[in-house]
């Protein structure tokens, strides 16, 4: 039977998702974040920024001497081929990315991505040596219908490959209604969801599931980060808007100071 690793034994990660924001000038933000994190904080928490694809190479190069890493926001499931406009996981790895977000609700909504697509993209990430940051989360209508646990459990079951491990996978719970709205679930609601996710992952993956990092995402700000990051089985955050300004992002990271 799997052991029950506690959140305290899992090194947290705060990842910033810049979404479709930023330009080469934004790379100065990386330097400010890196300098603000410093080696002492970096020993307690991993820090990552996921810029738009055109910035991945320059960002990864800029971060070579900073205590942080670069991820990407999406990848195609295949390694190469006739897929105009798409980017493979191998290309992202070649540019210096160490991770890729898959299954973000904006991809699911805007591009019709289903759990099977997300799973294929996570497998592509593994193939390329990238960590897959797999996003799950219910809509407002699903929460109001009391379906959030079932929805997220199904997404977890169908989106995660059998090859998922604590080293190659991070799960991000992002209630769709909390993204960019300033709304967040109560601490009790986050705790309940993360406990369910931990239980599901441990049941399926054993020790790997017990020690997989589980992030909360959705309107994380400096003012609520300490409370959210202090919840059991919350091993960090996936941050959107507040990752665009170094001061705000550092304010969130400092929840681990
Ligand atoms: O990937 C990040 C999430 O969508 C959260 O975005 P937000 O922090 O702007 O609400």
From TrEMBL:
SUPFAM superfamilies: Triosephosphate isomerase (TIM) (SSF51351). The gene is tpiA. GO terms for cellular component: cytosol. GO terms for biological process: gluconeogenesis; glyceraldehyde-3-phosphate biosynthetic process; glycerol catabolic process; glycolytic process. Substrate binds at residues 17-19, 180, 219, 240-241. It comes from Roseibium limicola. It catalyses: D-glyceraldehyde 3-phosphate = dihydroxyacetone phosphate; L-erythrulose 1-phosphate = D-erythrulose 4-phosphate. Pathway: Carbohydrate biosynthesis; gluconeogenesis; Carbohydrate degradation; glycolysis; D-glyceraldehyde 3-phosphate from glycerone phosphate: step 1/1; Carbohydrate metabolism; erythritol degradation. It is found in: Cytoplasm. Keywords: Cytoplasm, Gluconeogenesis, Glycolysis, Isomerase. One of its GO terms (molecular function) is triose-phosphate isomerase activity. Involved in the gluconeogenesis. Catalyzes stereospecifically the conversion of dihydroxyacetone phosphate (DHAP) to D-glyceraldehyde-3-phosphate (G3P). Its EC number is 5.3.1.1. It is an enzyme of class 5 (isomerase). This is Triosephosphate isomerase.
